[in-house]
Design goal:
heterotrimer, A mainly alpha, B alpha/beta, C mainly alpha, A: mainly alpha, 8 helices, 75% helix, C: mainly alpha, 7 helices
Chain lengths: 231, 279, 213
């Protein structure tokens, strides 16, 4: 009941989706389209589950006074403020429970939800990822060594692409005559990207694709059950 | 030989400061290096130029503020080109933050095009979860996937949505993508299953792998890769913006990183030679 | 007042930007505070957009306005509620029913899509006539493409020991993979620097007004 039925559902649903690709007529086509519509709604609930789970985990950490617990209060407060603002006054296009007054709109310039998004979230999110620029620079200085033929190839390709894919690359070799245009850095970078890079990426894509196909089959046939959790 | 050993042990904070300065200064004093348009970017431009006025295209905003510097300039340049050519845009988002990114781009561009009307030339249908499955569902039953726009108004109220039941009446699909779900899923469903021309813009991180789809099969018609791709597109639509301005800073930062890689390797080979001689 | 709130917003953004950049020196309370605000706002944003953009238009509105035509939507609604039961440990197993539908649909679609896009179409795009074009660079390039793809695939075949001619071929495959990784690294650097450019554009433009934002 707790494992067999979910496995049967997975088998039925997975098989139906595959069959409907080959026989798109009734009832398979209609059923698979309905299932995909249901997927959207269930996934919506899954996201809500994720957010509520985050809330629950943070409350547990605070109540147990886990290391750095005061910081989790900040996460909970931020989450709650965002949700309350969204429900009460809505988002940019979406009205909330209370119509936003002109006075409030003139005060903030945006709805409170959008104000927080624009001035806090956008900055936090962009800065968090821009940190990686510094770490990449430091890591490439420390780790990029031409120790072997393989690492030399990697290094040379990286440097050529870094030069060829910026405007300085065009300027550095811009003087090269037309007859030797294949030595122009942007052309070298384009050649690397179009041929050897694509060859390598394609090999990875195809092999990973076969892996996904294998995993999907294992799931549909009930061989792979880890998604059910438990023992 | 001590100098070569020092080459191997430069404090990372020195690198951080140099990168910071190397990016900041060219933003203040531009250097004005030449920009060249690459084949893949030209293909995207040509695809849109080839569409008849009034054609509807679908743009999927599959990114958020974390990658806004790279992708937002693409969105703006694509909208500029579309509105100039009277191509109508149906916007959706497979990432929740994509809705806001779309609104911001539209607000910026529509200020220059007073004739553009929401619901006639442009519509934002909002965010849907589900990635590939949702795209597949949309291709079979667009209306039940998107019964309303982002503001909760029924799509039947908008002339731009007239007759849109699946992908048939779309000129092409464009995905501006920062990961999964994104351009890859659009290629798999919109092109490989339903035969629609697909092109798009991605972060530079994603670009090398997405290039494998720009092939004889035309799985992807063209690709804008990172800030450079965005700058090239700005050049094509003749509206230099943030991406063009950022290219000098990008160049200087790359040169600094390459110099540090060289310093590291010089230090490595010099000290290795020394060690061999000692041995 | 709107302009004042805009300036305050910019200053909040600057504070948060520096709070995160402070991690470059070392982990500190300012970074931790900014990190938690990020998590909280991000989750809250997602929560609200899921309700407004998915659950209301795709479930609540159709069910409440026209139940007769949309009664089947009660099934995913029920499954969604089962999904939420995962929060209650004593009955968390019922969420498996909903999960089974999600996993089954994904597995079915992935099976077909990956087979078509990443295996068959990629293979077709590789099996080309390299001599079709008269251009020498293109001929060389396409030969590289074919050899690189095939040797790369051979490298990933681990059921046979990599030795002899097979091993040599796999080794050639490694070289192509290394070039790919190098190119990917170059692009990754490009990407991260672009994000930093965005940040500095905010600091120098929106905040300090030295450059036009």
């Amino acid at each position: 009941m707790r494992r067999q039925i979910p496995m049967l559902i997975t088998f039925f649903v997975g098989t139906l989706i595959i069959v409907s690709e080959f026989i798109p007529h009734k009832p398979f086509g209609t059923l698979s389209t309905s299932l995909e519509g249901w997927f959207l709604i269930i996934s919506g609930f899954a996201i809500i589950l994720g957010q509520l789970s985050l809330f629950k985990v943070n409350i547990i950490k605070i109540s147990r006074k886990a290391p750095n617990w005061p910081y989790y209060i900040i996460a909970l407060v931020s989450f709650s403020i965002m949700v309350i603002c969204g429900i009460l006054w809505g988002t940019q296009k979406q009205p909330g429970l209370i119509p936003i007054s002109d006075k409030m709109l003139n005060f903030f310039g945006y709805k409170p939800f959008d104000y927080i998004f624009k001035y806090m979230f956008e900055n936090l999110s962009a800065t968090m990822f821009s940190l990686l620029a510094f770490f990449m620079a430091s890591a490439s200085y420390r780790a990029f060594r031409a120790r072997s033929p393989e690492s030399t190839l990697l290094l040379v390709a990286a440097v050529l692409v870094m030069l060829g894919r910026t405007t300085i690359g065009s300027s550095l070799t811009g003087w090269i005559p037309e007859s030797l245009s294949f030595l122009h850095l942007p052309n070298i970078a384009s050649f690397i990207m179009k041929y050897p890079n694509t060859a390598g990426q394609r090999a990875i894509l195809m092999c990973a694709g076969l892996g996904v196909i294998g995993s999907s089959l294992r799931i549909i046939l009930g061989i792979e059950r880890s998604y059910l959790g438990g023992k | 030989m001590k100098i070569f050993e020092r080459f191997l042990h430069i404090d990372r904070r020195i690198i951080f400061v140099l990168i910071f300065i190397g990016v900041a200064l060219p933003l203040i004093w531009t250097l004005g290096f030449n920009l060249e348009v690459t084949e893949n970017v030209q293909s995207v431009y040509d695809l849109l130029e080839g569409l008849e006025p009034g054609t509807r295209i679908l743009i999927s905003f599959d990114y958020g503020p974390s990658t806004k510097p790279e992708i937002q300039p693409m969105a703006i340049a694509l909208m500029e080109q579309a509105f100039t050519n009277r191509i109508r845009i149906i916007a959706i988002a497979l990432w929740p933050m994509g809705v806001q990114m779309c609104n911001e781009a539209f607000e910026k561009v529509s200020a220059e095009y007073p004739n553009i009307e929401y619901g006639i030339d442009f519509i934002n249908l909002g965010y849907k979860v589900g990635g590939m499955v949702t795209i597949n569902h949309m291709a079979k039953d667009f209306r039940s996937t998107f019964p309303t726009d982002a503001g909760g108004n029924p799509v039947d109220e908008f002339p731009i949505m007239k007759g849109i039941k699946n992908f048939d009446k779309l000129g092409c699909v464009i995905s501006l993508s920062a990961g999964d779900p994104g351009l890859k899923q659009w290629v798999m469903i919109a092109h490989d299953t339903f035969g629609k021309p697909v092109c798009g813009g991605t972060t530079a991180v994603q670009a090398p792998i997405m290039l494998a789809y720009v092939n004889e099969q035309q799985q992807l018609v063209g690709l804008l890769g990172g800030l450079k791709g965005a700058a090239e597109y700005e050049l094509l639509v003749n509206k230099p913006g943030f991406a063009t301005k950022g290219m000098d800073a990008q160049s200087v930062a790359h040169i600094i990183i390459i110099i540090f890689i060289l310093i590291g390797n010089i230090g490595y080979f010099a000290t290795r030679k020394q060690d061999i001689m000692k041995a | 007042m709107e302009i004042l709130m805009h300036r305050i917003g910019i200053w909040i953004g600057v504070f948060l930007t520096f709070a995160i950049f402070s991690f470059l020196y070392k982990d500190n309370p300012f970074y931790k505070i900014a990190e938690q605000i990020f998590i909280g706002i991000s989750a809250g944003y997602w929560f609200i957009y899921t309700i407004y953009n998915i659950l209301i238009p795709n479930l609540f509105v159709p069910v409440t306005t026209d139940l007769a035509h949309n009664f089947l939507l009660l099934i995913p609604a029920f499954l969604g509620i089962l999904m939420l039961c995962r929060l209650i440990p004593s009955i968390d197993w019922v969420s498996r029913y909903a999960l089974a539908v999600v996993v089954g649909t994904t597995a079915g679609l992935f099976f077909k899509s990956y087979l078509q896009s990443d295996v068959l179409n990629q293979l077709t795009a590789t099996i080309i006539n390299p001599f079709a074009s008269g251009n020498a660079a293109q001929i060389i390039g396409e030969l590289i493409l074919i050899i690189g793809t095939l040797t790369g695939i051979i490298y990933f075949f681990f059921s046979k020991k990599h030795e002899g001619a097979f091993g040599t071929t796999a080794r050639v495959g490694i070289y192509f993979l290394m070039i790919s990784f190098g190119a990917a690294f170059g692009y990754t650097v490009m990407s991260r620097i672009s994000l930093l450019i965005g940040r500095l554009n905010f600091l120098l433009g929106d905040w300090l007004g030295i450059i036009k934002p």
